[in-house]
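Checklist before submission:
- one chain only
- standard amino acids only
- sequence pasted in full

Submission:
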Amino acid sequence: MTQPKLGVLALQGAFREHRQRLEALGVTVKEVRLPADLHGLSGLILPGGESTTMARLMTDYALWRPVRDFYSRGGAIWGTCAGAILLARDIQGAPPQFGVQDSLSLMDIRVRRNAFGRQVDSFTAPLTVTGLKNPFPAVFIRAPVIESVGEGVEPLAQHEGQVVLARQGRLMASSFHPELTPDPRLHELFLALVDQTVLTGV
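Returned file contents:
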């Protein structure tokens, strides 16, 4: 079977680190900046960064509908930190000057921006993750929290009683930055999700 090709949204944020993690696993990676870049992909990562800036750039580059269409055609998507905000159907805590923040509205979760504090409050914590044998070293930087999940959303990890990693079908969302640790296991978890999607023809 041909190995799936993955894309990383490369408008802003930690997309290079995601690319490096995937390439270290032998994955072919394409940086996505335009709708045409989605062609031929099986999975897409929305990286951490600044969610309002990323949302504005997605509007500027006309990416909202193509990314939704990519998902509708069977693509898998993983949003990390700001990327998780872009996936959510309900976003809390956006600055008043931005009004209602744009999102893909694909994942049935409610997230709250910057729930773990400012940049100076960044920290690393070991997480017990469903499907992983040992704790994962999660890096939290101005991280959102998943305040609630809808039916069909499976929480995979919590920090101090709050959901920080969840999965819904072909979607994953993490509050933290797995690309900032050398531990590849969450990227492998997403690859397994992509492989399952390809095999089932969803």
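Reviewer check: The domain at 6-200 is CATH 3.40.50.880 (Rossmann fold).
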